[in-house]
């Protein structure tokens, strides 16, 4: 049996990849996540701390980066309505083999925090030969879970893969001798990348009530398509000219002879008639592909195409790919195009190149072409003064935007606690509706309302603990009534000013301004708010924040640092590391506010299809392209008290980041890092049609 047949990164009953209770030197594969549950608990969650007991052990793990595994673990007793313990585990795998077949890793259970029930540091090596895998390691237990002291000292075990769906395991975890089996769904039964398995363990150390057997289930989930579960640096890409990695200064036209012309050529010739017909066909194809407000101008052999993205709200890269493919398919060889992606008339991204080169790239026969890519560009379209002049033209644009064509977004809103002394999971769940109505160029009115429909008892006044989380519930009612105006300043600068009712209780104004120079690796942002509580004007929420983001093109990662005074006027800073895996984003968080330090993990996922429906009676209905959920824990004190409300950034959902710039994913650096997405999107939504 080849060595690669044996599954890697299987979750054990201690919240790490391994055998039954001991870790091995494998990690969860990059770009995959694992959700697991088992009924084995020990320490203070056992009625006899010397023996294993039956309870609830929940684990969520992710391969956030190659050779790195992060796990969130919540352990509870037999009842999930009482106390539980939230902790985080990590494992680092050596990225190369010192000896053939050997792998090595170090890790820690229950790191950080202040109430470390299971804190254990360990080093482990695994040797795999064919269908046999042997593991030996050494750990140091420093937890507070009682006298079990699992993984304290030398531990080891052997796993034998009898079939691709069955393996037999024997181990010594430093506390008890265990044997068991792992049964997996056979290959080819589940969708590609998915894997379900069940773990059954028989322990030589008797448990409470003389119990000796424990079991668990494990579901492994891919976080992106197969090509997305590979770093950009590891993608098989052909080299392109170094000049293509640079962002060129914006220019009006490619042909110097056209610089003196004030308007597009209108010569009545057969060649011009053919070009007019080509432009009409190009516009029809773009509109048929669910792009709107399409405008086309031609200057010699360069075509400037402006459009807005109607349906590809999951990721605007799909809209770019479709527009590129249509332009490359329709334009003659030797012609060039420049795409100007807009939002409510504001240019947000520009991309240009030759039709032939882009066509070869999308067909898979060529490398990523040398091209112009600009974030937040200046307008390349010339405004014609005919038909009433510039003023009349501007008024017609206003009239067009005032036509009733709103977007309605439905998304869940969740306020929750995890791993508290009041229970495993408490929650308040609501449906949020955002209605965004464009008014004129760069202006929009946004109204947001929540409908609460499901809450756990601790979020209600009738809760077992007296409604301890009632103040954090999501109540039914209108949250935002905001009018915003966005200004395009050119050369990467964009500003949005908003005024109205914010977060249900605040009246005032906010300002968000961003600068994305060069290829977009750097992004600078300023957020200011001047808000007063509508019930008590003496209560102000005046934020003064500065933010810097850097995007690592080779690894599809970004780090975002925000500092200053936050929404509740608490001073501090927040560091957010994000790993992009397709449309899924995994987050590692560290923040400090008024002397309190916090660490956490989170994820962002789309809750809408890659292509939404078009307008029905002028109204577009969408889901949320980016829904985020974080879990944090307080650090550095004796106790693990809950703190709500630190480091809040006062930014409504319809902001520059979400409403205009595709969740910070419209930049040359991001496009190049994820260039395979362009080809795949064209083959899915363009060529296939």
How is the secondary structure organized here?
Blueprint: E1 32-41, E2 53-65, E3 68-76, E4 84-93, E5 102-109, E6 120-129, E7 132-141, E8 153-163, E9 166-172, E10 177-184, E11 195-203, E12 213-222, H1 270-288, E13 291-299, E14 302-309, H2 316-330, E15 336-343, E16 346-354, H3 355-363, E17 372-375, H4 389-402, E18 407-420, E19 423-440, E20 443-455, E21 477-490, E22 493-502, E23 506-515, E24 522-533, E25 544-552, E26 557-565, E27 571-581, E28 584-593, E29 596-607, E30 620-622, E31 624-635, H5 656-660, H6 668-673, H7 675-686
Parallel strand pairs: 14-15, 18-30
Antiparallel strand pairs: 1-2, 1-12, 2-3, 3-4, 4-5, 5-6, 6-7, 7-8, 8-9, 9-10, 10-11, 11-12, 13-14, 15-16, 16-17, 18-19, 19-20, 20-21, 21-22, 22-23, 23-24, 24-25, 25-26, 26-27, 27-28, 28-29, 29-31
Characterise the protein shown here:
- By secondary structure, the protein is mainly beta.
- Helices cover 12% and strands 45% of the residues.
- The chain has helices at residues 270-288, 316-330, 355-363, 389-402, 656-660, 668-673, 675-686; strands spanning 32-41, 53-65, 68-76, 84-93, 102-109, 120-129, 132-141, 153-163, 166-172, 177-184, 195-203, 213-222, 291-299, 302-309, 336-343, 346-354, 372-375, 407-420, 423-440, 443-455, 477-490, 493-502, 506-515, 522-533, 544-552, 557-565, 571-581, 584-593, 596-607, 620-622, 624-635.
- Helix 2 (316-330) packs across helix 7.
- The model is unreliable at 1-5 and 241-268 (pLDDT under 50).
